[in-house]
Structures are given as structure tokens and as C-alpha cells.
């Protein structure tokens, strides 16, 4: 029965001891320890969050870089394409210009040739007519000096004409 | 490997000490002395004492004298326990301030004014003496204070580790203690009380947990001769009352409503449940008190009873069996020290959690 009868003295000392222990440990142990532990846990949470943020930022930066690079590449492509087109166009234009110019020159040349030819022909005709008249004159003169000879001339001329 | 060696040494020492205790109680100074009484020896070791008995050497008990503090009708009286000259049978009378005291079965009696010698009735109750209020620093109080000193040293030096380091990394003793503290916080306080309110109760729960645990462990250490602090009903009663006070002081409207007027049931049921809930309020701390007391005391009794077998059979050949079984029980007791501290703390946290729970229906 003694065993299960609480002794007043021990109850008294346990109350005092426990309250003392509780107060001292609360002030000098539990508060600093729990404070440090939770501070560290908060620090870890914060560090993880900021690491995550940094990672995201890096990703964004990376994506930005990619995007910029892609844009630059596209622009380069565009520029090259434009340049190529311009080049082809310029060449084509030059070709066309040259051709038309050449055509024009050729036409002018032909025209000049034609007109020269006509002039030459006209001159030739004039010369032939003069020559003919001169011959005719000579013929007429010769006939007028000598009948025989006029006849001879007519004959030879006819003979020549036959030969022609 | 080192741990195993340590355990071996530890248990060897434990059983040598317990064997000595049995030897001491056998009173071998007289061959014709009464036979070995296992019950008396066990009860003597499980109960509180006014002096710190370490060992008997050459038939002389070696003890640490402890102060005896009594509150009599003449006021406070103090003297050292050594004045009783190790007498526990009530035959040695100590005179102090004109008052006469005897010690009988670890109880101090004050003799009536004209009595010279204490007399007992058939049931071993003194007939001519009364019990003064006893505030003595007994073996248990002494051991409790030793445990307090150990706790203060351990946890204040743990706290200093954090104060000294600026990155709050636990090194040294903090590396060992922090998991235990975090365990109490994350496995006991948080799930039982809840995320929003647990912080307020952390100092109480931590103190209860480590106070009980350390005293449980000290009960197993041989030099202390199994000072049974946490197996003393006065100790467990006090802690249970603290839990009762903390629980009921933090009880909210919802808690009291559940006790006196259970919501969500018909009126006759409310009336029927009220006395049950009121009884339950008191049964909770009583169960805490009895559980810790019974578990720790039972462990001590089993080990001592196994050791007593050697003296009951009066042969040394029983010793291997006794030591083997006591070793087995001792290993279990090591686990029990932590389990009982854990259970007491968990249930305290659970009761506090029930008292602070918000209504959700």
C-alpha cells in the first residue's frame, strides 16, 4: 500500500523541481534551440526558393537568348534572301537594259545601212544615168561624124549588148 | 563494436550492483538471522529512502547521508539522516529540539511527548507516535536533482552551440540532441496539437519528455542503486497533475462544450454523456500517472526478483539463469525508458490537442 500512496514530500519537491527545470530550460535551452532550428529551417526554405527562382530566371534568360538568336538567324536569312533577290533582279535588269540597248543600236544600224544603201543606189543610178547619157552623147557624136562608123558602133554595141 | 563493449560493461556493472543490493538486504551478519525475504528486499529498493545506500562493505553499510526536513507542530526541524545510524526498525531514537523521532520502514515518526520507545500494534502501526509532514531530501529527491543538473548541463550546452555558431549548424552535442528535440516537435507536438498552437506547448512537452526519460535511465544505472524516481507514484502523480492543469487551462469553448453539453446528439444523450465526460477528464491524467508508475516499477521488480532467485535457492548455480534473464529484461527496460517517456509526452500532447481543437461540425 505504501507503494501506491504518494508521499507529500516527494510531490512537493517534484513540483518545485519540475517548475524550476521548466522555467530554466524554457529560457536558456528550448527557446534558443527551437529558435535556431526554425530559423535554419526557414533559411533552408528560403534558400531553396531562391535557388528555384534563380533556376527559373536562368531558364528565362536561356529562352530569351534562344529567342534572340532565332530572331537574328531569321533576320539574317531574310537579309540574305533579299540580297539574293536584289542581285538577281539587278542582273536581270542589266541584261534587259543591255538587250534593249543592243536591239536599239542594231535597229539604228540597220536603218543607217538601209538609208546608206538607198543613197548609194540613188548615186549609182545617177552615175549610171550620167554614164548612159555620156555614152549616148559619145555615140551620137560619133554617128554624127561618120556614117559608117556610126553603123559600126551600133553594130559593136549591139554585139556587146548581145554578149551582155 | 565500441557500443557493444560499452553495453557489456554497463550491464556487468548493473548486475554486480544489483547483486550487492540483494546481498546487503540478506543481512549476513548473523548466521541465524531470519531467512532472505525477497518481497522486503524488492520493496525496499523500489520505494523511496531517507539515505542513499550504495553498498554494504564488511557488514557496514556505505551510504550518503541526506537531510531530513520535518514540519512538526513546533515548526521546521532538520537533521541529517546519518543520525539514525542506518536504523530502519524504529529502535534508534533521535532527539532534536526536545522532539523524539524514529525511522521505521522509511517512515519517520514523532514519538508522543512522554514516550521513550516506539511500540507497534499487530499491523506494525506505531501506537504512541504520529507522522510529521516529511519534506526530507530523500533518495528520489536527490536523484531527481542529479537528473536536473544533467539536463541543465546537456541542454544549456546544446543551446550554446547555436549561440556560438552563426550559421546555426548543429555540431557536437547539438548534433545528438537536435534530432530528439525535432522528433518531439515534428512527431509529437505538431500532429497532436496542430500547426498553429503547438509552439506554446513545446517547452512543457520537451521538459516532460526529457525529465521522464533521464529519470527512467537513471533508475537503471547501478551506482544509483536503482533510485526509482519515475517509478514513484508521487512523481508520476505530479507530472500527471501538470498535464491536467495545462490541458484544462488551455481548454477552449469547444472543449468544455464537449464535456458538459455534447453537440450533435439528442438531449437525453447529452445528459447521459456529461458525467462520463467529466469522469474522463480525470481518468486521462490518472491513466498517465498509473501507466508510468506501473511500467517503471514493474521493470525494477522483475530485475530484482530474478536476482532474488539466487538467494531464494541459496545456490550460486542459479546465477547464470538469473543474470541471463535479468540481462534480457534489462535490455527491454532500456527500450521502455524511452517508450514510456514518449507515451507520456504523446498522450499529454494529445489531451492538450483535444482541449484546443476548434469546432468543425
TrEMBL record, chain A:
Membrane topology listed for this record: Single-pass membrane protein
InterPro entries per the UniProt record, alphabetical: ATP_synth_B-like_membr_sf, ATP_synth_b/b'su_bac/chlpt, ATP_synth_F0_bsu_bac, ATP_synthase_B_chain
A molecular function (GO) term: proton-transporting ATP synthase activity, rotational mechanism
SUPFAM superfamilies: F1F0 ATP synthase subunit B, membrane domain
Gene Ontology CC terms, in alphabetical order: endomembrane system; plasma membrane; proton-transporting ATP synthase complex
Keywords: ATP synthesis, Cell membrane, CF(0), Coiled coil, Hydrogen ion transport, Ion transport, Membrane, Transmembrane, Transmembrane helix, Transport
Subcellular location: Cell membrane; Endomembrane system
Chain segments annotated as transmembrane: 6-25
Coiled coil feature spans: 44-89
NCBIfam families assigned: ATP_synt_b, PRK14471.1
Assembly behavior: F-type ATPases have 2 components, F(1) - the catalytic core - and F(0) - the membrane proton channel. F(1) has five subunits: alpha(3), beta(3), gamma(1), delta(1), epsilon(1). F(0) has three main subunits: a(1), b(2) and c(10-14). The alpha and beta chains form an alternating ring which encloses part of the gamma chain. F(1) is attached to F(0) by a central stalk formed by the gamma and epsilon chains, while a peripheral stalk is formed by the delta and b chains. F-type ATPases have 2 components, F(1) - the catalytic core - and F(0) - the membrane proton channel. F(1) has five subunits: alpha(3), beta(3), gamma(1), delta(1), epsilon(1). F(0) has four main subunits: a(1), b(2) and c(10-14). The alpha and beta chains form an alternating ring which encloses part of the gamma chain. F(1) is attached to F(0) by a central stalk formed by the gamma and epsilon chains, while a peripheral stalk is formed by the delta and b chains.
The family this protein is said to belong to: Belongs to the ATPase B chain family.
Function in brief: F(1)F(0) ATP synthase produces ATP from ADP in the presence of a proton or sodium gradient. F-type ATPases consist of two structural domains, F(1) containing the extramembraneous catalytic core and F(0) containing the membrane proton channel, linked together by a central stalk and a peripheral stalk. During catalysis, ATP synthesis in the catalytic domain of F(1) is coupled via a rotary mechanism of the central stalk subunits to proton translocation.
Protein name: ATP synthase subunit b
Organism: Bizionia arctica
UniProtKB/TrEMBL annotation, chain B:
Span of the signal peptide: 1-24
Location(s), subcellular: Cell membrane; Membrane
Any Pfam family the entry gives: ATP-synt_A
A GO CC term assigned to this protein in UniProt: proton-transporting ATP synthase complex
SUPFAM superfamilies documented for this protein: F1F0 ATP synthase subunit A (SSF81336)
Family that this chain belongs to: Belongs to the ATPase A chain family.
Name of the protein in question: ATP synthase subunit a
Natural source organism: Bizionia arctica
Lineage: Bacteria, Pseudomonadati, Bacteroidota, Flavobacteriia, Flavobacteriales
Amino acid at each position: 500500500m505504501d507503494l501506491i500512496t504518494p508521499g507529500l514530500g516527494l510531490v512537493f519537491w517534484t513540483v518545485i523541481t519540475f517548475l524550476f527545470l521548466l522555467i530554466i530550460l524554457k529560457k536558456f535551452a528550448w527557446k534558443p534551440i527551437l529558435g535556431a532550428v526554425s530559423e535554419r529551417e526557414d533559411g533552408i526554405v528560403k534558400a531553396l526558393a531562391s535557388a528555384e527562382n534563380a533556376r527559373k530566371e536562368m531558364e528565362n534568360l536561356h529562352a530569351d537568348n534562344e529567342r534572340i538568336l532565332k530572331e537574328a538567324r531569321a533576320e539574317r536569312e531574310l537579309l540574305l534572301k533579299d540580297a539574293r533577290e536584289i542581285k538577281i533582279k539587278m542582273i536581270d535588269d542589266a541584261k534587259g537594259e543591255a538587250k534593249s540597248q543592243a536591239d536599239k543600236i542594231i535597229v539604228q544600224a540597220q536603218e543607217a545601212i538601209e538609208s546608206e544603201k538607198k543613197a548609194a543606189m540613188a548615186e549609182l543610178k545617177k552615175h549610171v544615168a550620167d554614164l548612159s547619157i555620156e555614152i549616148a552623147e559619145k555615140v551620137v557624136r560619133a554617128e554624127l561624124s561618120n556614117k559608117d562608123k556610126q553603123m559600126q558602133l551600133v553594130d559593136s554595141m549591139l554585139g556587146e549588148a548581145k554578149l551582155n | 563494436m565500441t557500443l557493444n563493449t560499452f553495453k557489456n560493461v554497463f550491464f556487468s556493472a548493473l548486475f554486480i550492483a544489483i547483486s550487492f543490493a540483494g546481498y546487503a538486504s540478506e543481512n549476513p551478519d548473523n548466521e541465524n538471522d531470519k531467512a532472505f525475504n525477497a518481497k522486503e528486499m524488492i520493496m525496499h529498493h523500489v520505494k523511496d529512502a531517507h539515505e542513499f545506500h550504495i553498498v554494504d562493505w564488511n557488514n557496514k553499510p556505505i551510504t550518503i547521508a541526506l537531510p531530513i526536513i520535518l514540519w512538526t507542530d513546533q515548526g521546521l526541524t532538520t537533521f541529517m539522516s546519518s543520525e539514525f545510524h542506518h536504523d530502519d526498525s524504529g529502535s534508534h531514537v533521535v532527539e532534536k529540539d526536545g522532539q523524539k523521532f524514529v525511522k521505521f520502514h522509511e517512515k519517520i515518526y514523532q514519538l508522543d511527548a512522554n514516550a521513550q520507545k516506539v511500540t507497534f500494534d499487530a499491523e506494525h502501526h506505531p501506537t504512541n507516535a504520529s507522522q510529521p509532514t516529511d519534506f526530507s531530501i530523500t533518495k528520489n529527491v536527490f536523484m531527481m536533482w542529479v537528473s536536473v543538473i544533467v539536463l541543465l548541463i546537456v541542454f544549456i550546452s546544446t543551446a550554446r552551440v547555436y549561440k556560438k555558431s552563426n550559421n546555426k549548424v548543429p555540431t557536437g552535442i547539438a548534433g545528438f540532441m537536435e534530432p530528439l528535440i525535432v522528433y518531439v516537435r515534428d512527431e509529437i507536438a505538431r500532429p497532436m496539437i496542430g500547426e498553429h498552437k503547438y509552439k506554446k506547448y513545446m517547452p512543457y512537452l520537451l521538459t516532460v519528455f526529457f525529465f521522464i526519460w533521464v529519470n527512467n535511465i537513471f533508475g537503471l544505472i547501478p551506482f544509483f542503486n536503482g533510485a526509482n524516481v519515475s517509478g514513484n507514484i508521487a512523481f508520476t502523480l505530479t507530472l500527471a497533475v501538470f498535464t491536467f492543469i495545462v490541458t484544462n487551462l488551455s481548454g477552449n469553448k469547444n472543449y468544455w462544450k464537449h464535456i458538459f453539453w455534447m453537440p450533435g446528439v439528442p438531449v437525453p444523450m447529452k445528459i447521459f454523456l456529461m458525467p462520463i465526460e467529466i469522469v474522463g477528464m480525470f481518468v486521462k491524467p490518472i491513466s498517465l500517472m498509473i501507466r508510468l508508475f506501473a511500467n517503471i516499477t514493474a521493470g525494477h521488480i522483475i530485475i530484482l526478483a530474478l536476482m532474488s532467485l539466487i538467494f531464494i535457492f541459496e545456490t550460486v548455480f542459479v546465477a547464470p539463469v538469473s543474470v541471463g534473464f535479468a540481462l534480457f529484461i534489462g535490455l527491454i527496460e532500456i527500450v521502455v525508458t524511452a517508450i514510456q517517456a514518449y507515451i507520456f509526452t504523446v498522450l499529454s500532447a494529445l489531451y492538450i490537442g483535444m482541449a484546443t481543437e476548434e469546432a468543425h461540425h
